[in-house]
């Protein structure tokens, strides 16, 4: 029997509503965008349309596995959890709770209960060692907002912005944007509509991205030179009095110090460093300042380049000095239904410590609120002594190909006493595991669009039940953590209450939906209500109300470390003769990090991550499209497949990450791609607050491969 079931895609965070045709409850035979959805209007991407192949991939793990002498053998998930729990108990007894770590990666983030339960599991036995992909992605968003201060009600809405400033992100491919920016919710249509009503677009990106092709001003920045460019924009805005001085008088500290700190960055200096025209920098500053509405935000580009915290700070500072915040009486464009509270205040949340988390044992780093820094995880495993990490659960992640410094990451994973990987595929990371747990995939579980909840440009909620039945032994991520907790008698306490446990097991009454209710137990709309209103635009908006009486916090636009870092930037050489190119990161439309190229419909788009170079650079290097090139950084060397891209700035190579098979099973780069993270050192040039490595704007030398 064929049935049409309504759900939403969760290959990535964007949560595009889809209709799936399911035969006999068990087999997906068709997928298409849900045209009746009031916000997405049927939008999907090529990855989402492969849901059938993803779920029925013959290579998908249909059972959990245990390492044996020569390989792996199937094991019932309950038996695997018995073994894992016992080994974790022994490690905690011998080394303490800090020795037990977990890493929640991109795959698990698409499950709306995975990260919350993993964090609660750590809290249940006082282990601080909770890691996620956020801290090798864009950790500066959070840390910079802590240091600068934040506006409780948030930046202006995208929907009625007059201008948007896009610093190194590309939502037309990534479906991802920062607060106040263009989101992946039907992004082509949303961008076209915004332009039709008169919104201007400024893009700062070394590549003429799909998004940049819609820009009114595109600054083709030299990778890593955003701080100079953004400083010059701030300087010009302040000097010409284009800022919102009323707002600054009331809410901003340090404006004079900021002006002094950006003084070296004249339009000409910025133009020279960023290799753009001074007149364009001036025009961008004036267009942004003219507003009057609209915010700037950064993406992974500047967040992975050197001085990532500084670039984030300066971008947010542009918003602050131009007063781009929601005022009392306005409403938020998204529903923010999963967080508590129907109102937000028109006031500053006071600046605070940008790294308030647990201390690391190296590099004077501290974690973010509630989580530690993933760029230090390999060192936490390898560095002997008190607190050394001995066990790791990787939940929906692929550290071997995604973490900085592949060689060190592999050495660290090999050094562990216990590695558990929850993944539907036998990835290079899973190959190294003691246990691989086979998880349910998206269509087999209920979810809410939790990453998009505060981003969707409409007061919209969605919920999906599981739409595909499965009778094999698959677990949700939460079941792994709760299963270990039950066996080791530690609690899992979620915002809505503690997970009910029986003797050595989670209580029978608890299922995926129970956990959803508990994880989102303080949501302003209970999940129970969302279940009855799927894919709906509501009228209960979040309103912005007056500040608390006596509220007097102010933004700190020139904290001492920002001033110091600007002087470091001023004195830095702009070029490096030994490594003349800059390798920048990018997303490709048919893969999600390391996921996708194993599926026929996606592999047909391409099976490698080409090294895109400007045609003039190819000529100068004596290299033709399809030739192999050696890319060498101060840290390592890889081989890539050259491709021509006239959208790429000369002197730049644009390449996607998380390709290749890991060094233990290297293959043909045409077939498997090249791992750019072999070029990345995790302990050189890292950000002193977020610990982020330099994963973009990586200095490289390029030669024909002979
Ligand atoms: N199709 C697809 N979608 C994805 C993913 C995927 O792999 N594929 N990954 C998902 C994930 S995990 C994330 S975090 C998001 C990321 O979403 P985005 O942040 O939008 O990621 P990108 O599309 O790589 O855009 C980064 C841009 O920064 C530019 N850039 C690089 N270095 C610099 C620099 O120094 N300065 C400036 N100004 N720009 C620079 C690059 O040219 C690129 O255009 O995407 C998500 N969505
Ligand atoms: N140089 C450089 N390095 C980068 C980046 C860059 O731009 N440049 N990007 C960084 C960013 S933004 C990120 S987020 C990280 C990505 O780092 P990771 O998140 O560690 O890597 P992914 O390849 O996304 O791994 C996701 C895994 O989840 C699995 N998966 C898919 N669905 C499910 C599911 O339902 N359940 C479970 N349990 N697993 C599932 C997939 O099979 C895949 O193996 O890489 C970072 N590294
Ligand atoms: S953008 Fe993301 S959620 Fe939407 S169809 Fe593509 S992969 Fe699925
Ligand atoms: Mo990411």
Explained architecture:
- It is built from 24 helices and 30 strands.
- The chain is α/β, with parallel strands linked by helices and 706 residues long.
- The chain has four domains: 2-56, Phosphorylase Kinase, domain 1; 64-132 and 355-537, Rossmann fold; 140-328 and 555-561, Dimethylsulfoxide Reductase, domain 2 (3-Layer(aba) Sandwich), CATH 3.40.228.10; 575-704, Barwin-like endoglucanases (Beta Barrel), CATH 2.40.40.
- Strands 5-4-18-17-16-6-7 form a seven-stranded mixed beta sheet. A six-stranded mixed barrel has the order 25-29-26-28-27-30. It has a four-stranded parallel beta sheet with strand order 11-10-9-13.
- A hairpin with a 2-residue loop joins β20 and β21.
- α4 packs parallel to α18, α5 packs across α14 and α8 (226-239) crosses α12.
- The radius of gyration is 25 Å and the shape is globular.
- Bound molecules: ligand MGD (2 copies), iron/sulfur cluster and molybdenum atom.
- Residues 12, 106, 137, 167-171, 173-176, 204-207, 209, 221, 223-224, 226, 299-302, 305, 584-589, 591-593, 654, 696-697 line the site of one ligand MGD.
Summarize, please.
The protein has 24 helices and 30 strands. The chain has 706 residues and is an alpha/beta fold. It is globular.
Neighbour order of strands in the largest sheet = 5-4-18-17-16-6-7
Number of helices, counting only DSSP H or I runs of 4 residues or more: 24
**CATH architecture type of the largest domain:** 3-Layer(aba) Sandwich
CATH topology-level name of the largest domain:
Rossmann fold
CATH class of the largest domain: Alpha Beta
The radius of gyration is: 25 Å
Residue stretches low in confidence (pLDDT < 50, at least 5 long) are none
Helix content: 25-40%
Shape: globular
Describe the biggest sheet?
7 strands, mixed
Distance between the termini: 58 Å
Q: Name the bound molecules.
A: ligand MGD, iron/sulfur cluster, molybdenum atom
Average pLDDT level: 97
Q: List the domain count as a whole number.
A: 4
Query: How many β-strand stretches?
Result: 30
Q: What structural category characterises the helix and strand content?
A: alpha/beta
Fraction in beta strands: 15-25%
């Amino acid at each position: 029997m064929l049935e049409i079931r309504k759900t939403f895609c969760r290959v990535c965070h964007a949560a595009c509503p889809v209709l799936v045709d399911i035969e006999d409850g068990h087999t997906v035979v068709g997928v298409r965008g849900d045209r009746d959805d009031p916000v997405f209007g049927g939008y999907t991407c090529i990855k989402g349309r492969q849901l059938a192949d993803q779920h029925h991939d013959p290579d998908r793990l249909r059972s959990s596995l245990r390492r044996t002498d020569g390989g792996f053998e199937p094991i019932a998930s309950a038996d695997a959890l018995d073994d894992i729990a016992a080994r974790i108990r022994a490690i905690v007894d011998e080394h303490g709770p800090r020795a037990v770590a977990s890493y929640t990666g991109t795959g698990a983030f698409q499950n709306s209960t995975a990260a919350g339960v993993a964090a609660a599991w750590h809290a249940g036995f006082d282990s601080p060692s909770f890691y996620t992909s956020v801290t090798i992605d864009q950790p500066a968003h959070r840390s910079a907002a802590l240091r600068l201060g934040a506006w409780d009600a948030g930046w202006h809405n995208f929907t009625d912005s007059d201008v948007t400033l896009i610093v190194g992100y590309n939502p037309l491919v990534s479906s991802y944007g920062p607060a106040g920016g263009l989101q992946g919710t039907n992004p082509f249509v949303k961008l076209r509509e915004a332009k039709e009503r008169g919104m201007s677009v400024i893009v700062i990106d070394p590549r003429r991205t799909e998004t940049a092709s819609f820009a009114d001003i595109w600054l083709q920045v030299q990778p890593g030179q955003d701080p100079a460019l953004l400083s010059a924009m701030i300087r010009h805005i302040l000097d010409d009095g284009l800022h919102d001085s009323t707002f600054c008088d009331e809410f901003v500290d340090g404006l004079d110090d900021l002006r002094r700190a950006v003084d070296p960055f004249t339009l000409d200096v910025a133009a020279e460093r960023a290799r753009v025209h001074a007149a364009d920098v001036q025009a961008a500053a004036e267009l942004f300042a003219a507003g009057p509405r609209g915010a700037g935000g950064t993406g992974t580009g500047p967040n992975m380049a050197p001085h990532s915290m500084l670039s984030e700070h300066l971008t947010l500072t542009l918003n602050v000095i131009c007063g781009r915040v929601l005022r009392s009486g306005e409403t938020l464009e998204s529903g923010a239904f999963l967080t508590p509270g129907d109102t937000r205040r028109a006031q500053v949340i006071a600046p605070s410590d940008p790294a308030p988390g647990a201390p690391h044992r190296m590099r004077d780093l501290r974690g973010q609120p509630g989580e530690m820094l993933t760029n230090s995880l390999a060192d936490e495993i390898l560095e002997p002594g008190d607190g050394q990490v001995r066990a790791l659960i990787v939940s929906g992640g692929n550290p071997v190909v995604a973490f900085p410094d592949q060689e060190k990451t592999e050495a660290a994973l090999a050094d562990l006493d216990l590695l558990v990987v929850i993944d539907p595929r036998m990835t290079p990371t899973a190959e190294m595991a003691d246990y691989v747990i086979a998880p349910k995939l998206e269509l087999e579980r209920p979810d809410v669009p939790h990453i998009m909840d505060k981003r969707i440009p409409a007061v919209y909620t969605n919920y999906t039940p599981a739409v595909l039945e499965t009778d094999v032994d698959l677990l949700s991520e939460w079941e792994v953590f709760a299963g270990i907790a039950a066996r080791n008698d530690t609690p899992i306490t979620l915002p809505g209450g503690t997970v009910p446990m029986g003797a050595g097991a989670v209580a029978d009454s608890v299922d995926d939906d129970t956990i959803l209710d508990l994880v989102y137990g303080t949501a302003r709309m209970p999940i129970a209500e969302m279940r009855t209103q799927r894919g709906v635009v509501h009228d209960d908006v979040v309103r912005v109300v007056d500040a608390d009486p006596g509220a007097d916090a102010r933004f700190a636009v020139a904290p001492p470390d920002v001033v110091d870092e600007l002087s470091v930037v001023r004195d830095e050489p702009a070029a490096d003769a030994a490594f003349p190119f800059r390798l920048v990161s990018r997303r490709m439309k048919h893969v999600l990090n390391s996921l996708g190229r194993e599926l026929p419909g996606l592999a047909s788009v391409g099976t490698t991550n080409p090294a895109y170079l400007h045609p003039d650079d190819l000529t100068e290097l004596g290299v033709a499209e399809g030739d192999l090139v050696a890319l060498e950084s101060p840290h390592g060397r890889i081989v890539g497949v050259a491709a021509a891209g006239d959208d790429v700035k000369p002197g730049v190579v644009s390449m996607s990450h998380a390709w290749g098979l890991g060094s233990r099973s290297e293959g043909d780069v045409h077939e498997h791609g090249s791992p750019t993270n072999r070029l990345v050192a995790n302990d050189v040039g890292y950000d002193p607050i977020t610990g982020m490595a330099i994963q973009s704007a990586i200095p490289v030398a390029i030669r024909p491969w002979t």
